[in-house]
């Protein structure tokens, strides 16, 4: 039995439920997914500011997972917030949904496009693509200008599907990456409509963590990603001290 | 039940057996691995020449797999020979062990080194690292100068382990990638000795293909990777005609 | 009169004092520097974890600065934590000491090396160099393995100076960048000893912000760096809500 | 007297004739071009699959050339198939028409565009441009969607010329590279019509090989490109064994 | 009192006056700007040829500045002509307006576009962007096709403003860089109209040099940028001999 | 009969003679090389300053060549000074010896090293390698610290040969590029001693220009490299006005 914790870095429970469902559907029979919602942070992540403030709550969940025996973690926001910090903290592997989605897409052809929510988040997606070494494979980051918490409003699916279609026709994408955890359940439907593979990062990351655990692989901990040195923390965040 | 074909692109059966064993050990309970040896080609792959001539036999195995219902394929040579051609041919996903190993290693820290057999193959590994977008993460390609078919000779394991140790100390690698399918069974042992994660591409690629099949993902087939146009083939290779 | 806020993202007051002194010494007569220490966060920043948890306190200082009329901000930690988020929040320009130091060094020759505290922070410095486009100019990131809060211990200056000297001799650096705000006061002394320009990011960033204010330049706010959309924040961080 | 072998990697004799004529016209008086057609392989190369299966026949021609005293070789297909393997095998220099055309174009201005046959081959051209270091200079790869064996059909020349014209107007290309050996004879005509230099890879590669021979230069053979180690080959390709 | 020499590399006095005025307006109270016009060279710089021939006159001004006690230098042409040579010659720092403008723009957001005079100079701007490491941040180089000496003609400002507006709307630029010293005085006006920060290189470079002098920083002189070795110079340029 | 002008950008006649001899030896029977020495400029080029001041004299030779019917030009200094300006001026192709040598070396294997004169010129060679897209292929730039005009002193050849040998052993270079026109005559001797191909840029560039002329190719002249616009030139350089 493998135990994976999938953390939704925002505080919207309904979204955590979708994410948990998609992750559990993606993994094998012997794997249990726990979907977690942080006790503090923003209701959705649509700016660098939101992302920065989502991290403490996310790290608290990782710390809880360590105590409770989680064997691996998924960070289920397309900005991969707090990924390096989480890797220092966790014993098992940690995977972000943007890195998993983008790397998975590279197995499916030469180029992919990302379809995301608000245009203001495209810069972060571009940054991550460069950071993960897929800058050339990432043909475009397209926004449908629908806020994260309105992804289930009428018309949203049609708008997202239309943007995915444009990725194929205008960018020549071999595959499309959905750029928000909140789009996870649309994956199969859109793929069927547009006729190219569509990658949901939640499912991709859950499978990746599951595989890393199965292979006995986790973050190397002899250098940069060793456990952080213990030291005093002050104020509201004083509980975050490493022991 | 998922059926994956793992193809050893050289013609040495003993190596196919090792590869098959490692791949089967890596995947989940519902997955069956068929390890295949081509009917033509070189006994081992240690040059661009060997690699080029391994491809027809490899593609013949893919064609056979298509007929027999394979759902995904692993190309089990660290040069990832014939990968793009195989993707045109196969209905399911195709993954090379170099790309799987290198991409898997990027989840384990900032940098990895590759430890391979002969120094003359290091250029190909470097090329692939650049091509897959992990050129910066790939800190070094180290050769132990042991030919592929002598990896089981006395002293070989010690020499490989020593080179892996240097990758950690001298390159500052967070993880080590084994640069030959013939090293697959050494993975756990070396990792235990040197204290950093060691990635075997055979296991990594088998898990990756299994995951892609589970997620319903395969190569995008509307552009570059569409089935090749039918046309006459002449001479020895005339049987390779696409219909 | 120009008012610049220089924020030390850790909670060690003694370090804030050094930083404030160096920043004030660097700017022109008409500029007043306010050095700020966050009310929450780690005593020093030596890991991705520390850095992530320093950000909320840092952003609270930016928010306070906005209310009190600060015209520009320096983030005085070599990891440039929270920089993008701060730019969304602030009306005036925000500059990190790593970006200011590295870009300033590019005016001084072809290549520079960074001399930093602990080796485990070198990866972040490398990341930033790539992100800022100075990856090729950055010849090396060298660590003297002295923790941030021991930079004033006996022998520390000598060890740092020695590493700077090696940057010149072994890397062929035209200039050296000091990779920690806590080294700010050593700048002139080391430069005199080794005979090449040495850049302190605190001074460089303070001058850069002062110049941006003088030129009437601030972060473009029509796209990615527009003020974050208002939304509910939960838990400990609920006070961070944008209005 | 310099003897150069120009190998058409497909099995269409009519195309070999055009290629041979263009190569012979390009070289100096003291150089004899032998145009060769492989005894096995595809009638044209329009996919990764075709390209992979063209290589054995091509390498057989190189082996024959070695016996018969060829001093240098051109691989006359724009995918440069088998180039690295051929360099291991040949004593003299080996040049692909894509590398020769692209590098030649870099002497003619800042940027060039490639005009090729089918869109599905554009990815390979892009790959090669990156691999040869001309990714930035290569402004676009444009396809006219005419199959290789229909390049002499009515309307083909007009369509290719039109695409070349767009390269100048829309891409701002200083020069155009023809992306198929089958276009070799159109070069002068198109250049005259559009008023910018047009590079045919067959001519460019023939001149390049001739120059390398004249300068006494050939592939370095002390490392990666040393003669491949001898070993058993099995099956249809058993004749390809290195002795 | 800091003395900065701002050199207009062309011989048009009226342009030198504009440049001097903008530079003086940008620096602090304690800094005196001397604007200089070379005694030889082209009336404007609109080609590689003009740029190459502007350099001797520019270097003569630097040599004069050294004798007269200038503490730093600005090269006020957007091609940054002669920058490396000037750095060898000068004791104090030397900054080009293209590097200052582009690096300054990187503090203002993710991406900027350059708006320049003639399209034929765009290649040089692109080259510099790559050389300075801002190739990715530089979203476009846009030309308004107005010659340098006609920038004050009726309609010029409107045309430049329109091109800046397109940079925002079509390129998504966070900031705009004016690509000619002759546009310096338009900066504030255009910024007010289009609502994003607009960077004038003359002001940016003047502030940068002033800051470098204040920080005690100048070109590293122990390697590549040491004073050039003395040697005979022949002909018209014999007066340029280093002593 | 093809007429090529090979310009030595320094004023040392003895070096012009060596260069002319090597160029003439490299080209075919129907090509006449004219070696030219500028009437003004430095005796040798060993700094950015020297290089900048060599350009006017070099361009005057190009202008003379245009009048006298030269069909192509070689710029015979490893910094490729004035190359872009020369391309605007000349009707025929212009090739620098650094670009020709480096690009030629890329046909000979995966990596080459440059062996040059003074270490202070290595930065320029690195810059050019990046600019020409061979930054990855260029494994090292090695200096033997022998001034250009002392390349014929006793011991010089041995020192250069030794550095070439190190390039093979320490850098793993497949080929070596000689980084100074003054080393042209050593090429065959060093290659024979170290057993890898050694590229002299003078010979390589002469062959390249000869080939471009034979192929009817010259610099594209519809954009950036069109003839420079006519305008007044002042002072010593007033004779350089374009008509």
From TrEMBL, chains A, B, C, D, E, F:
<dbReference type="InterPro" id="IPR052186">
    <property type="entry name" value="Hydantoin_racemase-like"/>
</dbReference>
<dbReference type="InterPro" id="IPR053714">
    <property type="entry name" value="Iso_Racemase_Enz_sf"/>
</dbReference>
<comment type="similarity">
    <text>Belongs to the HyuE racemase family.</text>
</comment>
<protein>
    <submittedName>
        <fullName>Aspartate/glutamate racemase family protein</fullName>
    </submittedName>
</protein>
<dbReference type="Pfam" id="PF01177">
    <property type="entry name" value="Asp_Glu_race"/>
</dbReference>
<dbReference type="InterPro" id="IPR015942">
    <property type="entry name" value="Asp/Glu/hydantoin_racemase"/>
</dbReference>
């Amino acid at each position: 039995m493998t135990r994976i914790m999938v953390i939704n870095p925002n505080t919207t429970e309904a979204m955590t439920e979708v994410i948990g469902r998609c992750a559990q559907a993606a993994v094998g029979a012997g794997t249990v997914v726990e979907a977690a919602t942080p006790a503090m942070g923003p209701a959705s992540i649509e700016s660098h500011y939101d992302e920065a403030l989502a991290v403490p709550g996310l790290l608290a969940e990782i710390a809880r997972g360590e105590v409770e025996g989680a064997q691996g973690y998924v960070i289920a926001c397309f900005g991969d917030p707090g990924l390096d910090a989480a890797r220092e903290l966790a014993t098992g592997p940690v995977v972000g949904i943007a890195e998993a989605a983008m790397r998975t897409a590279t197995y499916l052809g030469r180029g992919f496009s990302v379809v995301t929510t608000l245009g203001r988040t495209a810069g972060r997606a571009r940054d991550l693509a460069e950071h993960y070494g897929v800058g050339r494979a990432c043909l475009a980051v397209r926004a449908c200008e629908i806020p994260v918490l309105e992804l289930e409003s009428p018309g949203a699916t049609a708008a997202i599907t239309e943007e995915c279609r444009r990725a194929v026709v205008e960018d020549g994408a071999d595959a499309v990456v959905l750029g928000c955890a909140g789009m996870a359940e649309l994956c199969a439907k859109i793929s069927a409509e547009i006729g190219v593979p569509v990658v949901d990062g939640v499912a991709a990351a859950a499978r990746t963590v599951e595989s890393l655990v199965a292979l006995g692989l986790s973050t190397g901990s002899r250098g940069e990603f060793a456990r952080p040195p213990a030291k005093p923390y002050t104020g509201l965040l004083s509980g975050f001290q490493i022991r």
